[in-house]
Amino acid sequence: MIPRYLVDIDLSAASVKQAEVIVIGAGIAGLFTAIRAAETDKVLLITKKSLLESNTRYAQGGIAAVISEKDSPEYHRQDTLIAGAGLCDPEAVNVLVHEGPEGVRDLIRMGTQFDLENGELALTKEGAHSQRRILHANGDATGYEIVRALSDKALQHPNIEVWDDHFVIDLITQDGECYGVWVQKPDGSKVYVQGKATVLCTGGTGQLYRYTTNPVIATGDGIAIAYRAGAVIRDMEFIQFHPTALVYPGAPRFLISEAVRGEGAVLRNINGERFMERYHHQLELAPRDIVARAIVSEIEKTNSTFVFLDFTHESEEKVKARFPTIYEFCLNYGLDLSSDWIPVAPAAHYMMGGVKTDLHGETSVKRLFACGEVSSTGVHGANRLASNSLSEAIVFGRRIVERIKELEPVNRIPDVRFANPDRELPIRPFIERRLKLQKIMLRYAGVTRTSTGLQKGYEELSKQIHIFDYRLTKREEYEFANLLVCSLLATKAALLREESRGGHFREDFPEKDDLVWRKHILFSHTDGILEERIGDV
User: Subcellular localization, per the record (predicted)?
Assistant: First the structure.
């Protein structure tokens, strides 16, 4: 049984910190929302590591927005809906494609320096986009440039206080309303932070898997704490595996951006054969789920552990100029992107599901908002279109701040007391527990899935629920508890969805079934498993 709170809480005896708006997480969603909210409110920005450590930092490809006169919101909408495989919320997609360009202008005003070409914003194309609409910075370091600019602005803002190295253990709620957060400080002491609005910007769940493009901090904290707090969680079966992560001895699963294929790179199996024509008419630029499965299929057919990404037709000068970060990283391991075929394979990349929100980012718990990868706004459906994630964060960050302006301050401390078991955990390193969880997810809930495997995976994961019977005190223990919650929700949803759609592929149900499964699977800590049918798109 997953408890409501992970640790003992008694607000009547707690140290209390007042803030008007609490923002948890320091990627593009957290920084952008904090800066916008600080125009009218005092903001406390809490991050469990530091301002420069987030998934955004590693985003290479760019940010999708309609900038070119040859493009239109209708084209962007159509591309997003096609990639989302019938599960997008059309209203949310409309919001994204129409408000994205203004969000990009906000980023520029906040100091982000996107690449220019002949004095105009340089645009590239990525998988499943029909037009060139991807803005990038320093070639392939878009995320880092955005985080750099926003971090600088946040640190200089008089209305923003930053708490580095603080861990939000749980949300404090009463009667379906969020009053703030229970936080562990670097010295291990706890503090209750109260605010009129709490915004989850905690990123995704990449650390559910052994091989991921995500940093070590992506442990699904926001989804898990929102679930325990009673918020509705949606679409947890839809996990995007990036098709092309570096596979090389001694190297991490480093992301080789989709933009490399957008600029003409091709995929070859270990026999040197180009193979994507056997799988999709868009070849290397097919939606990510299709490319990822094609690569897995070729790996299995050729009894190998990778395929090759071939970009050798381009000049060394162009490769270095367009993809300096990827070029340098590969070079550190003796691989030259301009002259070598680069070994790649899929790795966990992005969670399409998350905390369900409305069109202003508010969850089913009052005063609780979610923005960025932690959220399920309805934009991504069953499969996120490349570079829509950064756009989503700024578009819905703007909307969240507009909604927060309507909220009245909270003027009472809720009567919340909760006692957890006081039993010491049996000694077993949490790194070992985490590794076992990741291996279970990789084996049974990866790129391809079956009923038998998912059932086995769910049962194996369920054996770990006993950790909630013990006293948790350390950050790695909280992170493991959060990963466990997310893994149980993801495997259960994948087991229930008896079809294949977007980022969810069942070998035993390989076809899409719109008649039965054109709906969302929802999870609620209080109400159990629910369904939500969607309107026509």
Answer: Cytoplasm
Q: Strands, E, within 196-320: which ranges?
A: 197-200, 233-234, 239-246, 266-268, 307-310
* Tokens found for residue 92: 């949310």
Q: How many CA atoms lie within 13 A of 358 on its CB side?
A: 10
- Cα–Cα distance measured from residue 393 to residue 401, given in angstroms and rounded to the nearest whole number: 12
Greatest CA span in the chain, whole angstroms?
68
> What average pLDDT is seen over the chain?
94
Exposed e or buried b per residue across 342-354, where buried means at least 16 C-beta atoms within 10 angstroms of its C-beta: bbbbbbbbbbbbb
Looking at residue 425, its pLDDT comes to 83
- Comparing CA positions, the residue from 184, 150, 202 lying closest to residue 472 is 184
Q: How far apart, in whole angstroms, are the C-alpha atoms of residue 285 and residue 280? A: 9
Residue 362 gets which letter from DSSP? B
According to DSSP H, which parts of 333-405 are helical? 388-404
Q: Is the pTM of this model over 0.85?
A: yes
Residue with the two structure tokens 């990627």: 27
Cα 415 from Cα 11, distance rounded (Å): 7
Residue 104's SS3 state is helix
Q: Please give the torsion angle defined by the CA atoms of residues 102, 106, 107 and 113, in that order, rounded to the nearest 10 degrees.
A: 90
Q: Minimal CA–CA distance to 391: which of 213, 26, 135, 129?
A: 135
Q: Kindly state the DSSP code that residue 424 receives in the 8-state scheme.
A: P
Token pair 């629920």 in the structure block, residue = 465
Residue ranges in the chain modelled with pLDDT below 70: 53-61, 535-537
pLDDT, position 50: 81
In terms of DSSP bridges, do strands 233-234 and 354-356 run parallel, antiparallel, or are they unpaired?
Answer: antiparallel
Backbone φ and ψ for 337, nearest 5 degrees, come out as: -60, -30
Measured between alpha carbons, how far is 347 from 243 in angstroms, rounded to an integer?
7
List the catalytic residues.
288
| Lateral strand order in the sheet of 63-64 | 63-64, 134-135, 123-124
Cα 58 to Cα 143: distance, rounded to the nearest angstrom: 6
DSSP-assigned letter for residue 506: B
Q: What are phi and psi of 200, to 5 degrees?
A: -80, 120
Name the nearest CA neighbour of 199 among 338, 38, 321. 38
Q: What is the homologous superfamily of the domain 1-55+155-238+352-537 according to CATH?
A: FAD/NAD(P)-binding domain (3.50.50.60)
The 10s digit of each residue's pLDDT in 351-392 is: 999 999 999 999 999 999 999 999 999 999 999 998 999 999
Q: Alpha-carbon distance 401 to 323, whole Å?
A: 35
Asked if the domains 1-55+155-238+352-537 and 242-347 are classified in one and the same CATH topology, the answer is no
Give me the residue spans of the domains in the chain: 1-55+155-238+352-537, 242-347
CB 222 within 8 A of CB 45: no
Instruction: DSSP letter for 56, please.
Output: G
Which numeric CATH code is attached to 242-347? 3.90.700.10
Over the stretch 191-204, which tens digit does the pLDDT of each residue have?
999 999 999 999 99
